[in-house]
């Protein structure tokens, strides 16, 4: 189990904006569950956004009007018989606060009001909801998260990601079809956060090393790549001065080892090992560049944890764990030690 405080640090590195001055009061709070933490971050982010101004977009409205406006819908006017009232159905664009991003935020805040959070936090959410009076809500289980960001809504990026974390990671459908908020996010959501956290940590704390997540091209000899799957790395640490590159694949599982029949012995996840080996062998290394790979698992409570360094076909492949159930200074020390491998 990852302490709530460390989940905040993970979010802070995944979304660098949380390092800004305005969020320091959130960082100083103690939280009893993940929902409380995310509600606090969302409230702070939405408050800041309200001061900047909520995003507006042109929304097409269609309604009967006595004074024509926009495009006249003659067929719809006849069908609905509004002509008897001396009206016409008109379709027009309205510059509205009912933007899709605002709908996501309002939906998330409404969900959090049903969560196990403090009365004070719920009161804070209700105050913010006043500013969303003209905004519709959405089906929390059927939201399009493919948001296109530009300079007008760039400040929404972190807020929407927090909303996604709440609705996809904490919202659970029960047997009777109702919904409830879980205390902790599901493994799939935590796995993505774990990956983003590690990348964000290296980008912020080790600026002398290039930390990024590039796609790795298949090293085919005939140039024919049709139907080959995309190789998307999680984290790559590259140091041009030393010519060292470390490809890290972040793994967040309930169990970090697999059981093999017939004697039920524990071994490394074979698929994970094949994956990181493939990444390393297909890396387009520059002359003199040393390339290594690492599977970095989040440590679990299991007695046996993966730990080893292997020399495979001229490259080092390591399997390590990152203990997230400790003081953050210790977590940072573990990550710093890994960074030393490219120095």
From TrEMBL:
InterPro entries: McrC, McrC_bac. It comes from the Bacteria. One of its GO terms (biological process) is DNA restriction-modification system. It holds the Pfam family McrBC. PANTHER family: PROTEIN MCRC, TYPE IV METHYL-DIRECTED RESTRICTION ENZYME ECOKMCRBC. NCBIfam families: PRK09736.1. This is 5-methylcytosine-specific restriction protein C.
């Amino acid at each position: 189990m990852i302490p709530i405080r460390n989940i905040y640090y993970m979010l802070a590195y995944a979304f660098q904006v949380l390092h800004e001055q305005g969020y320091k009061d959130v960082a100083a709070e103690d939280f009893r569950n993940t929902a409380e933490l995310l509600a606090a971050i969302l409230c702070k982010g939405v408050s800041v956004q309200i001061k900047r101004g909520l995003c507006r977009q042109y929304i097409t409205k269609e309604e009967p009007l006595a004074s024509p406006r926009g495009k006249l819908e003659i067929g719809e006017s006849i069908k609905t018989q509004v002509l008897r009232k001396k009206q016409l159905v008109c379709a027009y664009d309205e510059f509205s606060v009912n933007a899709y991003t605002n709908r996501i935020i309002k939906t998330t805040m409404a969900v959090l009001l049903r969560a196990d959070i403090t009365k004070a936090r719920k009161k804070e959410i209700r105050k913010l909801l006043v500013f969303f009076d003209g905004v519709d809500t959405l089906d929390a289980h059927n939201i399009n998260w493919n948001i296109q960001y530009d300079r007008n809504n760039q400040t929404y990026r972190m807020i929407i990601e927090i909303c996604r974390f709440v609705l996809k990671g904490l919202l659970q459908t029960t047997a009777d079809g109702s919904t409830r908020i879980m205390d902790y996010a599901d493994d799939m959501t935590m796995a993505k956060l774990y990956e983003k956290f590690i990348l964000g940590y290296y980008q912020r704390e080790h600026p002398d090393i290039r930390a990024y997540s590039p796609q790795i091209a298949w090293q085919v000899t005939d140039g024919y790549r049709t139907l080959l799957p995309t190789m998307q790395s999680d984290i790559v640490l590259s140091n041009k001065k030393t010519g060292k590159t470390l490809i890290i694949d972040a793994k967040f599982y309930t169990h970090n080892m697999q059981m093999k029949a017939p004697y039920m012995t524990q071994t490394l996840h074979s698929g994970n090992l094949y994956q990181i080996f493939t990444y390393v062998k297909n890396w387009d290394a520059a002359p003199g560049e040393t390339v290594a790979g690492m599977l970095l698992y989040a440590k679990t409570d299991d007695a046996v944890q993966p730990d080893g360094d292997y020399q495979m076909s001229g490259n080092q492949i390591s399997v390590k764990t990152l203990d997230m159930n400790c003081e953050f200074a210790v977590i940072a020390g573990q990550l710093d030690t890994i960074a030393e491998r490219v120095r």
